[in-house]
Amino acid sequence: MRRGSIVALVGIALIAGGVAAAVALLPTWLPETASREAGRIHFVIWFVVVICIVIFSVVAAVMIYSVLNFRAAEDDWEDGPPVHGHTGLEITWTAIPFVIVTAIAIVSAIVLSRNDAQAKDTLRINVTAQQFEFTFSYPDAKNITSPVLRLPKDRSVELYMRSLDVIHSLFVPQFSQKEDIVPGLVTQLHITPTRTGTFPLECTELCGLGHSLMRTQAIVMEPSAFDAWLKQQKKGAAPPASSTTSTSTTTSTSTTSTSTTASSSAAGLSVFNSYGCSGCHTLTAAKATGTVGPNLDKLVAYAKQAKQPLESFVHESIVSPDAYIQPGYPKGVMPPDFAQKLNPGQLDAVVTFLVQSAQQAGKKG
Amino acid sequence: MLGPGLFRAAWMFVLFGGIGFGLVVLTRWGAGWHPILLLEPLVLVAGLVAAPIGFLAGLGAFDYWVYYALGYPTRAEDHSGHGAKSWRDYFRVNTDHKVIGVQYLVTTIFFFLAGGMLAMLVRAQLAKPNSHYFDPQTYNGLFSVHAALMIFLFIIPAYAGLANFVVPLMLGAPDMAFPRLNALSFWLLPIAGIMMLSSFFMPGGAFACGWTGYATLCSQHQPIGAIFFNQGVQWAGASSIMTALNFLVTIITMRAPGMTFWRLPLLVWANFTTSLLVVIATPFIAGSQFFSMFDHVMHTSFFDPVGGGYPLGYQHIFWFYSHPAVYIMMLPGFGIMSEIIAVFSRKPIFGYRLMALSLMAIVVLGFSVWAHHMFVSGMSSWLRVPMMITTLLIAIPTGIKIFSWLATIWGGKLHLRTPMLFALGFLSMFVIGGLSGVMLGAVPIDIHVSQTYFIVAHIHYVLFGGSVFTIFAGIYYWFPKMTGRMYDERLGKLHFWLTFIGFNLTFFPMHILGTEGMPRRVATYLPKFADLNMFISLASFGLGASTIIFLYNMITSWRFGEIAPANPWHAMTLEWQVTSPPPTFNFDEIPQVVGSPYEYGVPGAQHAILAPSKAREMEEVPV
After folding, report:
1. Cβ(A313)–Cβ(A306) under 8 Å?
2. Residue B224 DSSP symbol
3. Is A294 left (phi over 0), alpha (psi -120 to 50) or beta?
4. Parallel/antiparallel/unpaired status of strands A157-163 and A123-130
């Protein structure tokens, strides 16, 4: 190979590498890191990206140089030099990738084992996923529940996750951690938050019609603020929970701290929120904006269409959702098992709440 | 009326559907089950099993075997099923591998357009957050059917179509080993495709659980459209398996004298290895779809934890097929690339034996990497590191192929015709897709980007920038051989550049969306992703429009194109040594193979000696 062509080849490779590096650096590719695990994962990403840029530049340089220098005239079908191979080259381009992928595998395995290692004072949080909502409960604090994930900063946290229906997945981009939530299994996810703030938490496994809206938030708090929040929640939950939750730490899937006796609209709202209704339905009183299922602000009108009294219509629509389908909405989407999931007190509470909110919304409208 | 053909197919379709219907109704009535007219078993038995069999029987796909089985005298083979004299011959059971190859390609391009239209609708919805063009069921159906059509009805069978036309010619064989089986496996395809498309018209809408059809969403929580996917995969899969068996037997037993394995063109090697993958792996997806459908229709509990089932079991079985399927959708493309790059560089393929061996290495390694699709699935965590190592190792044989193609180009005499442009486009795009594949292979990176738009970007770089580019390259390359006419070179190049640019503008930004955290398979997204999504949607409409140029070029050139010489590319492989299009039985006499198919520039080298034939006389350009 002539000196000139080597210079040209290196020059093209540098330009290609420069362009690739600019593409890698100029746009914001990754969210800010908010966990120790994310920091390590970002390191692996950049480590592999550098390798990728080098390989891409070599390939691009050879291709561009060839296209620029080795063109034949349109009607010149003469053959090129009969080169059949070169053992040295072939060994080289088998050996170098082998070394590279070995390096990537080692770095990845080390990061993986560090990211999964729990500290001694790991905080346990139980996660329940269902179409289309997450519920988080804190077994160390009498299983108080929350629709958002609250975490203390700088403490190792292990999520124990269950699903009530189909496969979901929990992902917070700023934590770089993700794991599916599989019916019949308890899967685990380890996070050590390093930055206070509010981050989006989303389901990333297609779980049905409301999948796009199965989102909530992860809120990382200073440890003192987190403890204060836990205490406050415990107080609110203490009286009714004392008799039921002490034995249910291991089977906390559907236990909520909600009072089972109160039929006030607060209890109904709580049931509405913790059973994922807002994933599919719109209801002003609960600030819900789902569009998969019927708009619950219009329940009064729907009941008229169905020719049923409002209260029994609402009740029936929850316990056997396919008995009457509001025209324009798909059948078989709403889970049919709320009659089993809710106890009678919860069911009454949510029916009362829906009837009241619908009547209010009807008056306003 | 009684002769095989579309008319008999129509009434037998209705008749068999009626028999299936009656069977279900009688059984339910006899057993006292209510309601007697239950939709799911009726649709499954009558619509998805019995009626298609009636259609095939009416078309005449089983005639010979039925005569034989019933002890009637079989009609002597008069070769009347061979060749096509008019366009009508493309609409019957034809046993000529060249006709079947064209049937495959036209059918698959139809489904490519249908799948592409669905993708445009998906992009319309995603142009802005919170759009309401489609209700959620329809929207989830759009991307599910898009992927299912592109994979099962376009990429896999389009390769089968190209290979159907080319492989027997390259081997020096008069046809495939089992021509009647070949015809049957083609006619299963339109059935599968129409089944998947028609699920949109079922009550409740199309299957909407993604092309992966994960349990328990797909096995329990879907409308009846889901079983259209389950059954569609069975018909397409059966077609795939039969074709692969046919290729294996053809390649092993019907090579011309002197055509040793080390003299096979790399396209034949590629289809040999692909067929091995298909035969071994496809029964697994068939199983997974049967189990899923049984859970849906018969309430078995293969994957339902309430009945003792295991949802992750579905994923293990599914990916044990669907990872090798990635190579089923790639290796034939590698073969096409090797042919085109050698011919348009006018050089022998660099490192021929290592090229063939790396195909075999991919086949073997390809069966040991499936769980890299499941790094975040909740499977046993110890499995992740071994599967990461095998996954990364597969980059080595793939790298060998890319470097060998580069070395083939190096120092050659390049002709940048349309097939070569697509080949070079493939090389650059596949490198990007391969590198993002290495990133996904590393478990920590996969944990961050899996199930996001990064995956969507990666799969399109591999399957569009990779597979679809090679299919376009192959169609342009063999167009003169198939139709006897040249395509329009200017339009071909325009098509390439519009596709290349549109493709990158559409799919590259998806990497960024993914690393920033936008999940895939969503109908709406956080407002911060709005600008990029609008950009992607606009680019994707441009990409879609570029296909119109391809269609226009193909249709007008097929009718009015310049008459093609026997060997317009001055290639050495056997298909170019006969007329364009080739005679009905390919060769007047079976050729004698005497050397490698890639001896460009070697003085006096010959691939094969053909008996003095029409091919020589028709040759217009002296070599």
Report:
1. yes
2. T
3. beta
4. parallel
DSSP β-ladder status, A144-146 and A133-138: antiparallel
CB A243 within 8 A of CB A175: no
Judged by average pLDDT, the poorest of A233-242, A342-351, B337-346, B509-518 is: A233-242
The total number of residues written for chain B in this structure = 623
Each residue's pLDDT tens digit, B602-611: 998 889 998 7
Q: Read off the pTM.
A: 0.88
Å between B109 CA and nearest CA of chain A: 29
Which of B204, B216, B347 is nearest residue A80 as measured by Cβ atoms?
Answer: B347
- For residue B450, list chain A residues with Cβ-Cβ distance below 8 A: 178, 204
Task: State phi, psi for B527 to the nearest 5 degrees.
Answer: -55, -25
Is A178 close to B376, i.e. CB distance below 8 A? yes
- Choose among A8, A3, A7: nearest CA to A69: A8
**Residue A234 to residue A266: CA distance in whole angstroms:** 17
Average pLDDT over residues B531-544: 96
SS (H, E, C) chain A: CCHHHHHHHHHHHHHHHHHHHHHHHCCCCCCCCCEHHHHHHHHHHHHHHHHHHHHHHHHHHHHHHHHHHCECCCCCCCCCCCCCCCHHHHHHHHHHHHHHHHHHHHHHHHHHHHHHCCCCCCEEEEEEEECCEEEEEEHHHCCEEECCEEEECCCCEEEEEEECCCCEEEEEHHHCEEEEECECCCEEEEECECCCEEEEEEECCCCCCCHHHCEEEEEEECHHHHHHHHHHHHHHHHHHHCCCHHHCCCCCCCCCCCCCCCCCHHHHHHHHHHCCHHHCCEEHHHCEECCCCCCHHHHHHHHHHHCCCHHHHHHHHHHCCCCCCCCCCCCCCCCCCHHHHCCHHHHHHHHHHHHHHHHHHHHHC
Sign of CA dihedral B1, B5, B7, B13: positive
CB within 8 Å: A167 and B381: no
Confidence of residue A324 (pLDDT cuts 50, 70, 90): confident
Nearest CA in chain A to B622: A77
Give the minimum alpha-carbon distance from B330 to chain A in angstroms, rounded to a whole number: 20
Over residues B76-97, the pLDDT tens digits come to 666 677 888 888 888 889 999 9
* Chain A residue nearest residue B141, CA to CA: A209
Q: In the numeric block, which tokens belong to residue B342?
A: 């050698």
Contacts of A209 (CB under 8 A, 6+ apart): A280, A292, A330, A333, B136, B137, B140, B208
> Which backbone phi and psi does B171 adopt, to 5 degrees?
-80, -15
Show the tokens assigned to B389.
């190592």
Look over chain B and give the mean of its residue pLDDT values, rounded to a whole number.
Answer: 93
Residues of chain B with Cβ-Cβ distance to A292 below 8 Å are 136
- Are B602 and A82 in contact (CB < 8 Å)? yes
Query: What does the block give as tokens for B422?
Result: 């697509």
Please give the residue of chain B at the shortest CA–CA distance from A24.
B512
Residue B592: its pLDDT value, please? 93
ipTM for the whole complex:
0.90
Q: Is some CB atom of chain A closer than 8 A to the CB atom of B3?
A: no
Element containing residue B603 per DSSP (H, E)? none
Name the one residue in this structure whose structure tokens are 């002539």. Answer: A2
Q: Are B462 and B511 in contact (CB under 8 A)?
A: no
Q: In the 8-state DSSP scheme, what is residue B611?
A: P
Q: Does B230 contact chain A (CB < 8 Å)? A: no
Tell which phi-psi region holds residue B518, choosing left (phi > 0), alpha (psi between -120 and 50) or beta.
Answer: beta
- Pairs of CB atoms within 8 A across A/B: 271
- Sequence-distant (6+) residues with CB within 8 A of B446 are B372, B375, B376, B439, B440
Q: Which residue has the tokens 């799911």?
A: B40
CA–CA gap between residue B619 and residue B604 (Å, rounded)? 19
- Pairwise CA distance, residues B471 & B333, whole Å: 7
